[in-house]
Each structure stands twice: as C-alpha cells, then as structure tokens.
UniProtKB/TrEMBL annotation:
<dbReference type="GO" id="GO:0003924">
    <property type="term" value="F:GTPase activity"/>
</dbReference>
<dbReference type="GO" id="GO:0000287">
    <property type="term" value="F:magnesium ion binding"/>
</dbReference>
<feature type="domain" description="EF-hand">
    <location>
        <begin position="315"/>
        <end position="350"/>
    </location>
</feature>
<dbReference type="InterPro" id="IPR002048">
    <property type="entry name" value="EF_hand_dom"/>
</dbReference>
<comment type="similarity">
    <text>Belongs to the mitochondrial Rho GTPase family.</text>
</comment>
<keyword id="KW-0479">Metal-binding</keyword>
<dbReference type="GO" id="GO:0005509">
    <property type="term" value="F:calcium ion binding"/>
</dbReference>
<dbReference type="InterPro" id="IPR013566">
    <property type="entry name" value="EF_hand_assoc_1"/>
</dbReference>
<dbReference type="InterPro" id="IPR027417">
    <property type="entry name" value="P-loop_NTPase"/>
</dbReference>
<keyword id="KW-0378">Hydrolase</keyword>
<dbReference type="InterPro" id="IPR011992">
    <property type="entry name" value="EF-hand-dom_pair"/>
</dbReference>
<dbReference type="InterPro" id="IPR020860">
    <property type="entry name" value="MIRO_dom"/>
</dbReference>
<dbReference type="GO" id="GO:0005741">
    <property type="term" value="C:mitochondrial outer membrane"/>
</dbReference>
<feature type="transmembrane region" description="Helical">
    <location>
        <begin position="713"/>
        <end position="732"/>
    </location>
</feature>
<keyword id="KW-0472">Membrane</keyword>
<dbReference type="GO" id="GO:0005525">
    <property type="term" value="F:GTP binding"/>
</dbReference>
<keyword id="KW-0677">Repeat</keyword>
Length: 739
C-alpha cells in the first residue's frame, strides 16, 4: 500500500522522548506501538530496520524509545514506539496499541497471546516476522484467529532482513489507533453497528439541506468539501452513484443518494479496509472514538463577563431561518407536530416540551410559528447559553456555516453599567419580571404578550403552563424582544428574581388586598434600585374597588415618581392591547427615564432628564420635569393667542407678495383660457343663432374665471400654512433649546 509517509524517513527526524512516558496525544490516547511477543522473534530488528533502513548485524537486547514526529506522518500526529521485553514494563500500561510480534514458524503461540487478559481491551496487530526464512504464507492459519478475536485489527507478514512491509507495518499500527474497526463494524454479521448507523444517519440528515430525502450533486460536493477539503469531479460523482445503483435498488432516487445508499457506501469503505474515510466523516461532525459527540464540539469555550447577556447574532438567525424553511414542508409559516419532530431527529432527545407552545407565538391550531420559533431560540440563548450551544451543535451549525464553532453564532452584550453611563443600549433582548400576588392576572399578562385573549387562555392545560413568555415589540421602529418572567408570589423575592431590566407590578382592581403586595415588594426591593418599574391595574374590565392601603395606587405612583397605573385587560374579543408591552420595553431600553433618575438627577442635570424623558412622553404625569413644563407652556392659552396673532401678522406682511404672485399666475392662466373662451364663444353664437338654445349656456363662460379665483385663494392659503409651519417649528426648537 502506497502512502505519503511510507517513504524513507531520515534518522535526524527521529527523537527520543525525555522520559519513558507516552509522547503526544490523540483522541484520547497517543498512537503508541508496543512491540511484544516471544523472545528472539525479531521485535528489536524491526525497529532498527525502520530507523536505519537496513538490517542490523548486531542487535541490542532492547531498542531505545523512539518518537516519530507528526509532520512526517499522514495523520499529522506523533507516534511513540516502545520496544517491549520480558524485563521491561508491563503490558497492561496505558498504551494505545499492542503489537505482538511472532516468528512465522511460531504461529501456534498466537492463541496464547490473543487470549491474554492484558491485551483484550486494546487494538491488536499480529505480525509474522522472518518471512524470508519460509517459502509459504501463514495467513490461512492466522485468518481464523482474526475472525475469532475482534480486537485484532489486521495481520502482516514482514521481514526485517529484506525490509519487507516495514513501513506498512507501522502505518497499520497507527491506523489501528486512529481508525479502529471495532466501533464501526461487526464482522460476524457483516454490517455496521447500530451506534455507527445512528451517527451516519444524523450526518445524512444534516447534509440533506433541502430535506428531500436525498443528497443532490450540490449537497454531495458540499459534503465532500467540508469533510475532505476537495470537491468531487462530475465523473467521479457519477461513478459513485453507479456503484450504489449496481448493488442497491433504492440507493439512488431522483439522481440523488438516499440514506440507504449513503450507509451502503460507508459499509463498502469499511469492508474494503478504507474505514479511515468513515472516521474522517465522523470526526468532522464532532464524534469521538466511542461515537459520541465530544464536549469540545458541543460546548465550545465562551467567556461571559458579569452583568452581560448573550444573544443570537444575524448569522445565527439566518441559519435558524434556513432550518425552519427546511422543515416547513407545507409552507404555512408554522411547524406542525410532525414537522417539529422531524426537525429534532438530529437530537438525541426531544428538547422542547408542551410548555413551549405557551411560551411563544402559535397559530390558531397551536403550532409554533416562524416568529415563535425564533423567539424560543432567543429565550434559550438568553437564559441558558450552554444549552443553546449544545442545540446548535446538534443542528450542525459550525459545519453548515463553515465556522470554527457554535460560539460564532452568539453575541455577548456589553456591561449594563456602560449602557447606563452612555444612556443607550445595543441589546435586543430585555427581561421583565412580572410581580404580583397569586390570582392577580400575571399569567394573563404573559399570554397577552403572545396575542391571546382570555378565551384562548382558558384552553391552556395546567400542566402545560409556562412561567415565561417572549415576543417581539417595536419601539421607535426598532424590533426588540421582550421576555416576561412570572416570578414567585412569596413574601420575599430572591436575588435572581430581582435581576431584570424592568419590573411589571400587577394588581387586581377587583381585589382590595392586591395592591398592598405590590407596594410592599416595591419598597423592599426596587424603591432604591436602578430598575424601572411600571404599575399595571389588571382586570380593568371588572368593577374597581378601593384598595386596602394607606394611599391610592395613583397617589403611590406619583409619590415614588412612577408612571401612573396602566389599565389592562385580556377579556377582549380580539387580541389584547400591547401598549403596556411597548412601554415596558421602552423603559428597559432607556432606564434613565425611571423615577429614581428624576429624583437623583433632575436638580443637577435637567437637560439630560428632558432628553431621556422625551422618549416616554406618553407616560409622563409628574408636571415637574422640563418636558412637562414645556408641554404645558406650549398648550397654554397665552401661547395659543400669541400664535394666532403671529400668524395674522405674518399673513398680512406676506399678502402683497402672495397677491402679486397669484396675479401673475392668474394672468398666465387667463390669457390661455380667454383664447379658448373666444373660440368656444364663436361656436356657441352660431349654434344659438341656428338652434335658439337656452341662454343659460352662456353662463358656462364665466365658470372658468370663478375657478381661477378659487385656485388663487387655495394657493395663498397653502403658502401661508407652509410659512406658519416653518416658523412654528423654529419657535418650538428655540423654546426647547432655552429650557
């Protein structure tokens, strides 16, 4: 067998390790050759012949330990060779391979060696040395032993004296470690093992990017390129499919390779001794020697500093969009239970439970929509980033996008303290903790975010209830994700339940004891914090009762510089209003607008307060900030009278110019129209003389002049309105600048 590293290697490339320990490493053990066997069978001679490329006349009792550098081996891994002798180290040490060397005349001792307990767990190669001393082959005797013991990878006849199969021997030794046959193939049944079939089936499903059940030529070329870095020539691709057609009737369909054909090809590779091809594919898709996905593949390193969050970036959303389109076979922008199950066939378990349908948006049939699909991935990324990395690994993100790992799909946001300092944020996901006593309507608020009214909420089963809800909200034209979390209704909140971007305090207007809980929680955890809070009066469609608290909810909000209570109900015919969700998201995006900021910064920096408060103009009720003062001034009667007088004065000053302009336009239009009127007049006179028609026909000649006067009036009016708008805007900006 020809191989790139089988050419003679100079002795200068060989180095001895500093200690008798194993050098190098490979998944997980290093490829170490440990020649062992009976005495005087030529173990040391084989090593010396490999190093010096000639048969040694004087053979030492034991050869020194040798390391083959990685750059001279085809697999680019170091190989450590240790000569074993009866006086040396024990066989059961943690070496990656045992090489039992026998003389061709002593093949009967193979039974003793192959049944040794010390070698039963390691790959084994049987070597028949001194083949130059016999004129026949012992392979017919050795083959039954190979079939009996699956640990034996291969057997080789060689000669250290004639340098026969010396390089091949060490190549097979390295290959037995890197590409073992045992995990892939069962020689008794002559088929691949279930674990190998399962792994290759997942690889096929990932590579089938259009989900049509076959690998097209483009998909096969992509598969070939990502696994072997070389595309297939068109003729080679056709030859592969012809081989499958000849041996399997349903291996090729619609000129594409089916799953059965894909598995047949790998079985053929293994049976022909090309199992390194199958191992290359498996390791490219993240599998280890036990055909399990490695932790390094599923959980790549990702550093997340404190007070930072994780979000999916644009490339990740594009990938998830392609996954959704791949499995949305009926193109209804929703995944049915069968389509969702088909999507998760590449997972070892079902990752989503029935509660997901009550966490994200669904259609009328309860199927997860496209928006809900992306929202659930956004939720997983925000709450459990390691699980998100694992899920993306199962989907083959790093392979299909040709990225180093799934970590490239995530964005780590900057510290929240920096956002507060800069008065702006680059985040797209905001968390809102919903606080309230039991039965106040918190779950209704969560489901209203998903567009579900009270009638649809009553259809949710208790065991499928979700404590999270996430959906997109538009704030000033920007699409943001609002994540609602229904926290516990205990007397005290834990630290994790107070970490959020905004707090929604919900009380029942029909329960007199409901508001007291919200007021107490606010004073205990959020009154002196930097977290903005919004009070929501739930079930506003019911009769509002007096709350058993010292002050009313409106006075409480005014006292603590909070926006007034927001009335909310989900007992509607259509989807509930989303006004409170827009306000919550706005408060999370611009936290300096909350009450603590007014209290601490209004006296010192009112201009900053105004710029922040202007973004929440619909929620202001304090009548103390700069924004409220300006708004009250602009809406005052004094300013309205001044505006009217100013408009009158400007209009009087501009009227001569407008009249002159209008007269010029009128003269041009009249000159052309008069010619037309004279022409029509001549025709009308002739008709009148002949037919004696009604004299009212003459009045039509005067309608054109009336229309011209009307157009002149509207011209002057539009010009005056434009001037007034410009002057009003300039005056408004000047007033704001002074304030």
């Amino acid at each position: 067998m020809s191989h790139p590293w089988l050419c003679p290697v100079p002795c200068s490339a060989w180095t001895a390790p500093p200690s008798p320990t194993v050098a190098g490493s490979i998944c997980p053990l290093p490829p170490t050759d440990l020649p062992s066997g009976l005495s005087r069978v030529g173990k040391t001679s084989l090593i010396m012949s490999l190093v010096s490329e000639e048969f040694p006349e004087e053979v030492p009792p034991r050869a020194e330990e040798i390391t083959i550098p990685a750059d001279v081996t085809p697999e680019r891994v170091p190989t450590h060779i240790v000569d074993y002798s009866g006086n040396g180290c024990a066989i059961h040490m943690a070496y990656a391979i045992l090489w039992h060397c026998l003389s061709c005349k002593q093949y009967k001792t193979c039974y003793i060696l192959a049944s040794s307990n010390d070698i039963s767990l390691l790959p084994l190669i049987l070597v028949g040395n001194k083949s130059d001393l016999v004129e026949y082959s012992s392979m017919e005797t050795i083959l039954p032993i190979m079939n009996q013991y699956t640990e034996i990878e291969t057997c080789v006849e060689c000669s250290a004296k004639n340098l026969k199969n010396i390089s091949e021997l060490f190549y097979y030794a390295q290959k037995a470690v890197l590409h073992p046959t045992g995990p892939l193939y069962c020689p008794e049944e002559k088929e691949m093992k279930p674990a190998c079939i399962k792994a290759l089936t997942r690889i096929f499903r990932i590579s089938d990017q259009d989900n049509d059940g076959t690998l097209s030529d483009a998909e096969l070329n992509f598969f070939q390129r990502i696994c072997f870095n070389t595309p297939l020539a068109p003729q080679a691709l056709e030859d592969v499919k012809n081989v499958v057609r000849k041996n399997l009737s349903d291996g090729v369909a619609d000129n594409g390779l089916t799953l059965k054909g894909f598995l047949f090809l790998h079985t053929l590779f293994i049976q022909r001794g090309r199992h390194e091809t199958t191992w290359t594919v498996l390791r490219r898709f993240g599998y280890d020697d036990d055909l399990e996905l490695t932790p390094e593949y599923l959980f790549p390193p990702l550093k997340i500093p404190p007070d930072c969050t994780t979000e999916l970036n644009h490339h990740a959303y594009l990938f998830l969009q392609s996954i959704f389109d791949k499995h949305d076979l009926d193109r209804d922008c929703a995944l049915s239970p069968e389509e969702l199950k088909d999507l998760f066939k590449v997972f070892p378990y079902m990752p989503w439970g029935p509660d997901v349908n009550n966490t994200v948006c669904t259609n009328e049939r309860g199927w997860i929509t496209y928006q809900g699909f992306l929202s659930q991935w956004t939720l997983t990324t925000y709450l459990d980033v390691q699980r998100c990395l694992e899920y993306l690994g199962y989907l083959g993100y790093s392979i299909l996008t040709e990225q180093e790992s799934q970590a490239s799909a995530l964005t780590v946001t900057r510290d929240k303290k920096i956002d507060l300092q800069k008065k702006q944020t680059q985040r797209n996901v905001f968390r809102c903790n919903v606080v309230g006593m039991k039965g106040c309507g918190k779950n209704g608020v969560l489901q209203a975010l998903l567009g579900r009214n009270l009638m649809r909420q009553r259809q949710i089963r208790a065991e499928h209830k979700s404590y999270y809800a996430i959906n997109t909200v538009y704030v000033y034209g920007q699409e943001k994700y609002l994540l609602l979390h229904d926290v516990s209704d205990s007397e005290f909140l834990c630290d994790d339940e107070t970490i959020c971007d905004v707090v929604c305090l919900v009380y029942d207007v029909n329960n007199p004891k409901s508001f007291e809980y919200c007021a107490r929680i606010f004073k205990q955890h959020f009154m002196d914090s930097r977290t903005p809070c919004l009070m929501v009066a739930a079930k506003s469609d019911l009769h509002e009762v007096r709350q058993e608290y010292s002050i009313s909810p409106a006075d409480f909000c005014k006292k603590h510089k909070m926006p007034p209570p927001q009335a909310f109900t989900c007992n509607t015919l259509e989807a509930p209003s989303k006004d409170i969700f827009v306000k919550l998201t706005t408060m999370a995006m611009y936290p300096p607008t909350c009450a603590w900021f007014y209290k601490q910064n209004f006296n010192s920096c009112p201009s900053v307060c105004f710029r922040s408060h202007a973004r929440l103009r619909c929620m202001c009720a304090c009548n103390r900030c700069t924004f409220c003062i300006c708004q009250n001034f602009l809406n005052s009667d004094l300013l309205q009278s001044v505006k009217n007088k100013l408009f009158t004065a400007v209009l009087n000053r501009l009227r001569p110019h407008v009249d002159e302009l209008g007269a010029m336009l009128l003269a041009d239009e009249e000159s052309s129209i008069i010619h037309q009127v004279h022409a029509v007049s001549f025709v009308e006179d002739s008709i009148f003389m002949e037919s004696s028609l009604d004299p009212h026909l003459f009045e039509d000649r005067h309608m054109t002049q009336a229309d011209l006067k009307s157009s002149s009036f509207w011209l002057r009016a539009s010009f005056g309105a434009t001037v007034f708008a410009v002057l009003g805007f300039a005056m408004y900006k000047a007033l704001l600048k002074q304030r």
